[in-house]
Every structure is written in structure tokens, then in C-alpha cells.
Design brief:
3 domains; 3-stranded antiparallel β-sheet; mainly alpha; Serine Threonine Protein Phosphatase 5, Tetratricopeptide repeat; disordered N terminus; 336 residues; Ubiquitin-like (UB roll); Leucine-rich Repeat Variant
Length: 336
């Protein structure tokens, strides 16, 4: 299985003449508020210049009664326009809880951190050239020779220093150290030895740590389906919780992971999503930007019991509401 590696970045704001305009606006976290009311309060509209200050927009959104937190993210680009994601958390609404930051002193060697920073640059350049990630071996391997060189180094280091990497991931006070540990521990030869560590990292207070942990777990989930005799099990619990996060990457990566976990029959995961995250999934399935809406649409359709063949047919026709309507119906007493 080969999946594209997508990099999200804030659109650069260099000078007024270079500021991109706003394209699609996707809002999430709504339960009582309306998108129109929030966008008006934040002075955001499609076709207008990208807001110069992320913080100012978030402050405006947080003055709306009932809004306790807000987050603005811009993704570059759809043509000459930036895609905006506006996330809010309402008072009494769903909340994704992370654990307190650890305070330990464990660290990785300087050369591992240096290699990982260089690796990120290599991956970014490779992705821009169209390189993809291959999860088939249970590791997020890039189809790029330079990236593979670094990945082999990480695999060797983890094989010889697994306890150290685990200690950093769980207890280091340095978020970058934990992020590198989450990004490398998935290269351990015995995946069953690191699944619990990676699932622990899904509640890390730093979004980069969570993102790297999801990336590693997605690869392990692919291997678990490809080779069931290995007995690998990736739990859906924290992925489902992340669907209610204020952070866009949490939601999007969790949805992608859950698509993998439900590629084959997984009624437990589907029931958990229906119970704890269906409003979030429906909201995301309706996003204007199709490539971001698709994973959540697939999950909504699977919750509704629709075959993937029919879901793809509905998607091609632009019909998202049929799956949403069926998923919103009362849950059946038994699931086939």
C-alpha cells in the first residue's frame, strides 16, 4: 500500500502584494454556533486576502459567546488561494484531552537529532517531487533513496537503543526530543514492542509528537491487516478521541488511521466512532476541500453500513448526504 505524504504549512506572508487570497473555508467544532456567525465575527471571507495575523483572528473568535478556544490554520495552496480551516471548541462541547508535559531529562544523541532534522528536509523535497510513503512493511518508508538512507539509520539506532528511545518518548521534557522518538521508534523490528508506546504518545501535549505517533501507527496498522498471523493490534480508541481535537492535523491523521483500521471488518471501531465522534465526522465529511473531506466521508459511510464500492459511486456523483443521513439514523441493535 502506497499513500501520498502530504505536508501542511501556513501560507507565507511576505509582503502585501504577495499575500494569497482565501479560497475554501472549512469550519469545524460547531455544535450550537453557525459558520456564518463565526466568519463574520472573524472578518473572514472567500476571495479576501489571507488574514495577516493568525492570533488576531483566533482572539476575535474567542470573543464570541460560548466559544472557549479557537484555531486558524492555512494550507497552501489551491491554485493561487490558501485553504483556511477554522476550528473552535464550544463551552460544554467535545474536548480532546492530552496529558501534562513530562519533566524528565532523557535525551537522544545529538547526531540522531541532526539526522532527523535533515530527514525532514529530505522528505519535504521528495514529497514535492511526488514521492510517496510505503506502509506495506509496517514502517513509513519513503520511495526516495536519500530518505531511505536516513530510515535505515533510524532502524539501526532503535534496534540498539530501544529502551532509551522509549524513555525519551514517554518522559523527556523536550518536545522535539519526544517528536523524534515518536518518528523513529516505529522502525523497531518487533512492532508489538512499540505499539503501546506509540499509543501512549497519542495523548502527548505536543501536536508534532502526536503526528509522528499516528504516522508510525498507520504503518503498523497496514502491516497488521496484511499479516494477521503477527497478532498486531492497533486500538482505535485514541484516534476516535482525536477526531474532536481543535488541531487540524489531529483530526485529519486520525481519520486516515481509522480508514486503515476499518478497511476490513471492525465493528468495534465503527461503533466507537458512532458513539463518540459522529458529529465531528459528519462535519468533516461536508468540508468544501474534497481531499480533506474524503477520509471522513468514507468513515461516515462505513458507519452507515454502505459498501466502499457504493461509497465511491456516491462520492463521484457528489452525493455526501445519503451516507450522512443513514449514519445519523439510530444505530441498529446488531451489526452484521
Amino acid at each position: 500500500m502506497v499513500r501520498p505524504f502530504v505536508l501542511l504549512a501556513m501560507a507565507p506572508v511576505i509582503a502585501a502584494a504577495q499575500v494569497p487570497k482565501v479560497g475554501d473555508i472549512n469550519v469545524y467544532g460547531l455544535r450550537h454556533q453557525t459558520a456564518d456567525k463565526l466568519l463574520k465575527a472573524a472578518s473572514i471571507e472567500s476571495g479576501a486576502p489571507l488574514p495577516p495575523s493568525k492570533g488576531d483572528v483566533e482572539d476575535k473568535l474567542e470573543t464570541v459567546p460560548g466559544v472557549v478556544a479557537a484555531r486558524l490554520e492555512a494550507v497552501c495552496c489551491d491554485g493561487d488561494r490558501a485553504i483556511l480551516f477554522v476550528g473552535i471548541e464550544e463551552r460544554g462541547g467535545a474536548h480532546f484531552e492530552t496529558r501534562p508535559a513530562p519533566t524528565g531529562i532523557a535525551v537522544l544523541p545529538d547526531d540522531v537529532l541532526k539526522d532527523y532534522r535533515e530527514y525532514l528536509s529530505v522528505v519535504q523535497r521528495a514529497a514535492q517531487r511526488g514521492a510517496a510513503e510505503d506502509y506495506s512493511m509496517g514502517e513509513p518508508r519513503m520511495s526516495d533513496a536519500a530518505a531511505r538512507t536516513f530510515e535505515e539509520r533510524f532502524a539501526t539506532f532503535v534496534a540498539e537503543n530501544l529502551d532509551q528511545v522509549r524513555e525519551v518518548l514517554r518522559n523527556s521534557s523536550d518536545a522535539e526530543q519526544r517528536a523524534v522518538a515518536a518518528g523513529t521508534i516505529g522502525f523497531a523490528a518487533k512492532k508489538d514492542q512499540v505499539i503501546n508506546d506509540l499509543q501512549y504518545a497519542l495523548q502527548d501535549p505536543d501536536e508534532s509528537v502526536r503526528g509522528n505517533a499516528v504516522r508510525s501507527l498507520k504503518a503498523i496498522a497496514v502491516l497488521a491487516q496484511k499479516r494477521p498471523e503477527l497478532g498486531l493490534r492497533v486500538s482505535p480508541t485514541w484516534f476516535v478521541a482525536m477526531l474532536n481535537s481543535l488541531v487540524l492535523s489531529d483530526r485529519q491523521q486520525a481519520a486516515e488511521a481509522l480508514v486503515i483500521l476499518t478497511d476490513k471488518s471492525n465493528p468495534g471501531a465503527l461503533d466507537l466512532m458512532r458513539e463518540r465522534a459522529l458529529p465531528a465526522l459528519i462535519e468533516m465529511a461536508r468540508w468544501k476541500t474534497l481531499r480533506y473531506a474524503l477520509p471522513s466521508f468514507l468513515l461516515v459511510g462505513r458507519i452507515a453500513g454502505i459498501s466502499d464500492t457504493e461509497l465511491h459511486a456516491q462520492w463521484q456523483k457528489g452525493d455526501r448526504e445519503t451516507a450522512i443521513r443513514l449514519a445519523s439514523a439510530p444505530a441498529p441493535k446488531t451489526r452484521k
